[in-house]
From TrEMBL:
Protein's gene: brnQ
Family according to the record: Belongs to the branched chain amino acid transporter family.
Localization (cell): Cell membrane
Listed transmembrane segments: 12-32, 44-67, 79-99, 119-138, 150-172, 199-218, 230-257, 277-304, 325-346, 352-373, 380-405, 425-446
Keyword Cytoplasm among record annotations: no
InterPro entries in alphabetical order: Brnchd-chn_aa_trnsp_Livcs
Name of the featured protein: Branched-chain amino acid transport system II carrier protein
Topology in membrane: Multi-pass membrane protein
Keywords: Amino-acid transport, Cell membrane, Membrane, Transmembrane, Transmembrane helix, Transport
Pfam family, one: Branch_AA_trans
Length: 451
């Protein structure tokens, strides 16, 4: 039976890591460290538990369920298709892909160009950015040759340089915890890690990694699953190390320049640090880090989206649509959105993402416990997803109304009746109720089948 050697597994891990680690992953941990200050360690632990733990559990759950479609299909096949399309579009051309170009442009180019020429600079930059991403994503099964062997290691080296510079600089006096991190730093870090939304991407990145494993002549499906899981676990280790390092970077930055948690961002934290340590060159250095991180993620997302749609919709209106055609469509759409309508897309997408996340968490937890629990009571899939989905949909509607300037006080009051709703964990109660109903329903069906 063909297996990957140690070098190939390292390359596959770097590929997986590169697909995960974008601008959001780069700026969240420093922002945590800058706010937590002297309490960075417990805050970082909480952040890592959710920001790394949930996505890696997602990778393992999907891998051993033999794909997200089969996992979601335990609810129903139509539900699997609907949820799959919703996740792919929100983590792809409607949100994450355009954001990779816009964020890297803001960090790399905006500080270097006059305000009057910003629009033409953004047009040219995004054209180059998406052209490179399109070229890198031509062959998803060969993505490890680009990300795993070159782009991923380069990004790690640049982050290591930043971390070493912080170690040399040190912290004279750690800042006092501020903003949301004045109390309960570990719990706050957990909630902020939950907001990275990496779990949604994790549910489908396995498609691309599996294709790369197949390209290395691993043909037995069980071994492909095993190698994908190993790459996922390796990615988890890398993310833990880097999130820990970047949290320390944030603590150093916060000790140099105090931030305003209400108006500043993780990008501000990094900019303050690099400009202090490296001077003018720091802006360029940080911009390069952002460009590489964003280009990696953009490439991975284009591969994932195009692969999914090519698999699900090989023909449209009687015409064959190739992987390359889907890839081109997603690239062009993302290019247009990044230049024309990203702000509105983001405002609309965030409530949708927040609705999809609890449903995905429930599916992953059920998959992880499938052998000991869910397989014995199969109806828990339906009832837990149904009740969590209802609450998530209500929350999505309320948020969308707010985005467009309206309000539904009665709906918000209804949601606030749920325990832990203020901590964005209101879905836990419906999921517990769904589990109880699912067990009872499963026993009822089993009893009827016997009689």
């Amino acid at each position: 039976m063909r297996t990957l050697n140690s070098r190939q597994r390292v390359v596959m891990t770097f590929t997986f890591f590169s697909m995960f680690f974008g601008a959001g992953n780069l700026i969240f941990p420093p922002f945590v460290g800058a706010q937590a200050g002297a309490s960075t360690i417990p805050a970082a632990i909480g952040f890592i538990v959710s920001a790394v733990g949930l996505p890696i559990l997602g990778v393992l759950a999907v891998t051993f369920a033999d794909g997200f479609d089969k996992l979601a299909g335990r609810v129903s096949p139509k539900f699997a298709l609907f949820l799959g399309i919703a996740i792919i579009l929100t983590i792809g051309p409607c949100f994450a892909i355009p954001r990779t170009a816009t964020t890297s442009f803001e960090m790399m180019v905006v500080p270097l160009v006059p305000d009057g020429s910003k629009w033409i600079a953004q047009l040219l930059y995004s054209l180059l950015f998406f052209t490179l991403a399109f070229l890198f994503a031509q062959h998803p099964e060969k993505l490890s040759k680009v990300l795993g062997r070159f782009m991923g290691p380069l990004l790690l080296v640049l982050i290591a340089v930043l971390f070493v510079a912080c170690l040399v600089h040190g912290i004279a006096t750690a800042a006092a915890p501020s903003g949301n991190y004045q109390t309960n730093q570990m719990a706050r870090g957990f909630l902020d890690g939950y907001q990275t939304m990496d779990l949604l991407a994790a549910l489908y990145f396995g498609i691309v990694i599996s294709a790369n494993v197949h390209a290395l002549n691993v043909t037995e499906e069980s071994q492909v699953q095993r190698e994908t899981a190993i790459a996922g676990l390796g990615t988890g280790v890398l993310l833990i190390l880097i999130y820990g390092a970047l949290s320390y970077v944030g603590a150093v930055s916060g000790s140099i320049i105090t931030i305003n948690a209400n108006s500043d961002t993780g990008a501000t934290v990094l900019t303050n640090l690099t400009s202090t340590i490296f001077g003018t060159a720091g802006t360029i250095f940080l911009g390069i880090v952002f460009v590489i991180a964003c280009l990696n993620v953009c490439t991975g997302l284009i591969c994932t989206c195009a692969t999914y749609f090519h698999t699900k919709f090989p023909t449209v209106a009687g015409h064959t649509v190739s992987y390359r055609a889907w890839q081109l469509a997603f690239t062009i759409f993302s290019f247009v959105v990044s230049n024309a309508g990203l702000s509105l897309i983001i405002k609309v997408s965030v409530p949708v993402l927040s609705a999809l996340y609890p449903i995905s968490i429930v599916l992953v937890l059920l998959a992880i416990t499938h052998t000991v629990f869910a397989a014995r009571f199969p109806r828990v899939y339906f009832w837990m997803v149904l009740l969590v989905g209802i609450v998530a949909l209500i929350g999505c509607v309320a948020s969308l109304v707010t985005v467009f300037g309206g309000s539904l006080p009665w709906l918000e009051s209804l949601l606030n009746m749920l325990p832990l709703q203020q901590q964005q964990l209101g879905w836990l109660t419906p999921s517990a109720i769904g589990a109880v109903i699912g067990v009872i329903d499963s026993l009822r069906i089993a009893h009827r089948a016997k009689s």
